[in-house]
């Protein structure tokens, strides 16, 4: 015997929310794959200075997102099927998966909040070490430091760290910096690589944060609806 009345409305409402949840999982999976293969981050985070690799903390978060997106799509499908079939077993499994996912999302959010500044800080330290090596090299000399610095400068359209040396670098080391149309433009347009690194990662983390909040709200509604529907199915089967 199928559910009737308000419980039937909850059944279809849960199906709609699960479909949105499934779509959100697909969007998160797509966005995380885009962030993983974004040309700016890959150009910078695949660099190697001697035997030292660029910090990969950012990619740890991206791999977590890829996993979450894939699991969300699976759980969303499970919730849709459980709601249509009015299966208490499937809905109970769906609710358990949601609780686990929600706990993982909270843990990932805490990890991301703690490490959000550390990601940019580690990349800036890596850049500063390469910049020091590049400055010590002769203009005609080729070394790993110069190659790393030039990749940063060309990818982010910047030149030098956020200090006095960085401000005058475009004037005496044109081999390291992207060329500007004029000397005046060099001083007018701020080109600190520290600032550009902050902008690069803060923008991406802001996007991830918005997606996480939207998904968390949907999950809370789904947990409530799945329990209400499960109770409604149990009560209707009595009669």
Automatic annotation (TrEMBL):
<dbReference type="Pfam" id="PF00335">
    <property type="entry name" value="Tetraspanin"/>
</dbReference>
<keyword id="KW-1003">Cell membrane</keyword>
<keyword id="KW-0446">Lipid-binding</keyword>
<dbReference type="InterPro" id="IPR018499">
    <property type="entry name" value="Tetraspanin/Peripherin"/>
</dbReference>
<feature type="disulfide bond">
    <location>
        <begin position="158"/>
        <end position="193"/>
    </location>
</feature>
<dbReference type="InterPro" id="IPR018503">
    <property type="entry name" value="Tetraspanin_CS"/>
</dbReference>
<feature type="transmembrane region" description="Helical">
    <location>
        <begin position="56"/>
        <end position="84"/>
    </location>
</feature>
<comment type="similarity">
    <text>Belongs to the tetraspanin (TM4SF) family.</text>
</comment>
<dbReference type="GO" id="GO:0042127">
    <property type="term" value="P:regulation of cell population proliferation"/>
</dbReference>
<dbReference type="GO" id="GO:0008289">
    <property type="term" value="F:lipid binding"/>
</dbReference>
<keyword id="KW-0812">Transmembrane</keyword>
<dbReference type="GO" id="GO:0016323">
    <property type="term" value="C:basolateral plasma membrane"/>
</dbReference>
<dbReference type="InterPro" id="IPR008952">
    <property type="entry name" value="Tetraspanin_EC2_sf"/>
</dbReference>
<feature type="transmembrane region" description="Helical">
    <location>
        <begin position="205"/>
        <end position="229"/>
    </location>
</feature>
<feature type="transmembrane region" description="Helical">
    <location>
        <begin position="90"/>
        <end position="114"/>
    </location>
</feature>
<feature type="transmembrane region" description="Helical">
    <location>
        <begin position="12"/>
        <end position="35"/>
    </location>
</feature>
<keyword id="KW-1015">Disulfide bond</keyword>
<keyword id="KW-0472">Membrane</keyword>
<dbReference type="GO" id="GO:0002250">
    <property type="term" value="P:adaptive immune response"/>
</dbReference>
<dbReference type="InterPro" id="IPR000301">
    <property type="entry name" value="Tetraspanin_animals"/>
</dbReference>
<keyword id="KW-0391">Immunity</keyword>
<keyword id="KW-1064">Adaptive immunity</keyword>
<keyword id="KW-1133">Transmembrane helix</keyword>
<protein>
    <recommendedName>
        <fullName>Tetraspanin</fullName>
    </recommendedName>
</protein>
<feature type="disulfide bond">
    <location>
        <begin position="159"/>
        <end position="177"/>
    </location>
</feature>
């Amino acid at each position: 015997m199928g559910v009737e009345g308000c419980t039937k409305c909850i059944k279809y409402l849960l199906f709609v929310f699960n479909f949105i949840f499934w779509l959100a999982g697909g969007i998160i999976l797509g966005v995380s794959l885009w962030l993983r293969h974004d040309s700016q981050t890959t150009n910078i985070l695949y660099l190697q200075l001697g035997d030292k690799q660029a910090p990969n903390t950012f990619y740890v978060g991206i791999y977590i997102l890829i996993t979450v997106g894939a699991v969300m799509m699976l759980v969303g499908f499970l919730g849709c099927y459980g709601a249509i079939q009015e299966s208490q077993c499937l809905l109970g499994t769906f609710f358990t998966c949601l609780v686990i996912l929600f706990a993982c999302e909270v843990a990932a959010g805490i990890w991301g909040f703690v490490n959000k500044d550390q990601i940019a800080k580690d990349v800036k330290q890596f850049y500063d070490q390469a910049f020091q090596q590049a400055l010590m090299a002769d203009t005609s000399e080729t070394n790993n430091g110069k190659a790393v610095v030039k990749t940063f400068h060309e990818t982010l359209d910047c030149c030098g760290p956020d200090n006095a040396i960085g401000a005058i670098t475009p004037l005496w080391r044109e081999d390291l910096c992207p060329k500007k149309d004029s000397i005046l433009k060099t001083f007018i347009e701020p080109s600190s690589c520290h600032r550009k690194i902050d902008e690069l990662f803060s923008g991406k983390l802001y996007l991830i944060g918005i997606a996480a909040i939207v998904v968390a709200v949907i999950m809370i509604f789904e947990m409530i609806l799945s329990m209400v529907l499960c109770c409604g199915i149990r009560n209707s089967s009595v009669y």
